[in-house]
Amino acid sequence: MYEYMKGRLSFVSPSYLAVEVGGIGYQLFVANPFRFSSKFNEEILIYVHQAVREDAITLYGFADLDEKQLFLKLISVSGIGPKSALAILASDDHGGLVNAIETDDAGYLTKFPGVGKKTAQQIVLDLKGKLGELSTTAAATEKMEASPVVSATKHMEEALEALKALGYSAKELKRIEPKLKLVEATSTDEYLRTALKLLMKK
């Protein structure tokens, strides 16, 4: 099993990163790939979880140890798979997530794609009282520098692609797109963070 890896960030897509270590490019699925954009072609340290199934070996990446631990707690809940866990972690508001679990606010949790009422209640049941050791102000929410060479339209398109990869429906994205066009964002990461906040208001 891997704990973390250190290597060159060689590719950023709407759903995953490629990190080159010792001449091998590793595909890591992450909650918000564009959080790492400013580190493109630089060496990064990323925490890793390896999931082994009959048909695939998949790597999931995290900006820090707290984010990884929160992911592991989420996938321990019946009904929450890795994709749903990443969609939950894509929101900046990890503090809000922990608070919702601790205060039995299942309604907050159903705003995430793939989380119905029954699953939300299961999250509260399984994790309440078990998240106190996790920091909610970790580097996972840190803003990265913007890439000035990409147009605002391109940034927004990339953000929408990332949201599709997280499981948000075309209907949900169409609802927030007009508001997103009014945002003066300077990076895909910024558009993505804003879009997630808009989606959480539904």
From TrEMBL:
Signal peptide limits: none
Domain (Helix-hairpin-helix DNA-binding motif class): residue spans on this chain: 72-91, 107-126
Keywords tagged on the record: ATP-binding, Cytoplasm, DNA damage, DNA recombination, DNA repair, DNA-binding, Helicase, Hydrolase, Nucleotide-binding
Region: Domain III, residue numbers: 151-202
Gene3D superfamilies recorded: 5' to 3' exonuclease, C-terminal subdomain (1.10.150.20), DNA helicase RuvA subunit, C-terminal domain (1.10.8.10), Nucleic acid-binding proteins (2.40.50.140)
Gene Ontology annotations for the cellular component aspect, listed alphabetically: cytoplasm; Holliday junction helicase complex; Holliday junction resolvase complex
Main location: cytoplasm
GO biological process: DNA recombination; DNA repair
Family annotation (SUPFAM superfamilies): DNA helicase RuvA subunit, C-terminal domain, Nucleic acid-binding proteins, RuvA domain 2-like
Entry annotated with the keyword Metal-binding: no
Pfam families per the UniProt record, alphabetical: HHH_5 (PF14520), RuvA_C (PF07499), RuvA_N (PF01330)
Location(s) in or outside the cell: Cytoplasm
GO molecular function (one): ATP binding
Cross-referenced NCBIfam families: ruvA
Domain characteristics, as noted in the entry: Has three domains with a flexible linker between the domains II and III and assumes an 'L' shape. Domain III is highly mobile and contacts RuvB.
Family: Belongs to the RuvA family.
Protein name: Holliday junction branch migration complex subunit RuvA
